[in-house]
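Q&A FORM
Asked by: J.P.
Topic: structure of PilZ domain-containing protein

PROVIDED:
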Amino acid sequence: MFAAEFEPAEFANRRRAPRAALALDTDMARGGLDRALCRVTDISVQGARLQTYTELRRGLKIWLRLPKVGDVAARVVWAKDFAAGCHFDTPLAREDFEYLAPLT
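REPLIED BY: S.T.
REPLY: Here is the structure written out as tokens.
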């Protein structure tokens, strides 16, 4: 089976910040102190797209662990099956984004 992601040009033009494709295995905390594995598949200074092994729901607050940066607070803005998009409470510093962007 072949799977591909498609984003129409009109959506790409509405992005607030450039995104970088990524394949970063990490973890996140949800609610209490429980941590769950996830993969960051793209990132910007404003947020990230995740693949998860547990379903998330819109509005959930998470703490995403990023190399060099540490735990970043974020809010899930969309979730479908085992994928989710999150918006960081505080945007990443430009140098942190530039460090993470080439981690493929």
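FOLLOW-UP: The longest helix spans residues 94-100.
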